[in-house]
Amino acid sequence: MANPVQFISQVRAEVGKITWPTRREVVTTTIMVFIMATLFSIFFFLVDLVIRTGMTQGLRLISG
After folding, report:
1. Which of 25, 28, 35, 57 sits a CA distance of 20 to 30 A from 51?
2. Sign of the C-alpha dihedral computed for residues 42, 44, 47 and 51 taken in this order
3. How far from 13 is each of 4, 19, 53, CA to CA, in Å?
4. In the chain, where are the structural domains located?
């Protein structure tokens, strides 16, 4: 097991290798996530609507 000073030194060296995203990249990625979440929610709403309508019509035919 390494001593604490050596461990801290290694951690700092590894943190120095990290390339952080720019503000523009973060904003662009965030906007894309919101757009995709909106598109997926609309898609699943429409799929749910179609399935619900089909089930309702099918049950009306069976019971009716």
Report:
1. 35
2. negative
3. 14, 13, 59
4. 37-64
